[in-house]
Amino acid sequence: MSESDSQPTKGRAKKKKPSRTEMKREARSFALQALYQWHMAGSTLNEIEAEFRAENDMSGTDIKLFSGLLHGVPSQSAVLDRAFAPYLDRKLEDLDPIELTVLRMGSYELAAMIDVPYKVAINEAVNLAKIFGATESHKYVNGVLDRVARDLRQAEVAGAKR
Q: Where in the sequence is the domain holding 37, given as residue range(s)?
């Protein structure tokens, strides 16, 4: 046993508090998983939210964003689907459930969360598609949401192009 093994560890590094960006990213990740569960299993949103809060360490999560997405996306799903359906290259029913959920989440942020810049909403959706989606789904999500942003955030998109 070396000398360092026998000495108590002094001043172990504390876990760094996550940044607001990291907390929001974590909320989106949990929301995607919860919405996927809702889509596939049909459990109630309140049951899913309670399950996620009980079974996951959400201390580094923006709970308000998680809950807002979890309850907001399903309540607006028909409107959201109409926002991106014109830009799909296939029927809505033929979308992979992850792609559908990511597109709904991204469209919801573009439509209902005006405090989130459109580029951030698209980028976060693309990142979720990279992590959870099929190999090239992030490119598809990016293209569709870019068009949705032009419809829903015309002034913001036009201002960014200048």
A: 19-161
Q: Is residue 12 part of a domain?
A: no
* Helical pair 137-152 and 97-112, crossing angle rounded to 10 deg: 30
Is there a domain that residue 8 lies in? no
Which CATH number is 101's domain given?
Answer: 1.10.940.10
Q: Is residue 50 part of a domain?
A: yes
Residue at 53: amino acid letter: R
Give the helix/strand (H/E) hosting 151.
helix 137-152
Give 29-34 contacts, CB < 8 A, sequence gap 24+: 29/128, 29/131, 30/56, 30/58, 30/61, 30/66, 31/65, 31/66, 31/69, 31/70, 31/73, 31/105, 32/98, 32/101, 32/102, 32/105, 32/128, 32/132, 33/132, 34/66, 34/70
Judge contact between 139 and 131, C-beta under 8 A. no
Number of domains in the chain: 1
Q: For the segment 39-66, what is each residue's pLDDT rounded down to a tens digit? A: 999 889 999 999 999 999 999 999 999 9
Asked if the structure places residue 13 within a domain, the reply is no
Q: Which residue would you say has higher pLDDT here, 68 or 6?
A: 68
pTM given for the model: 0.87
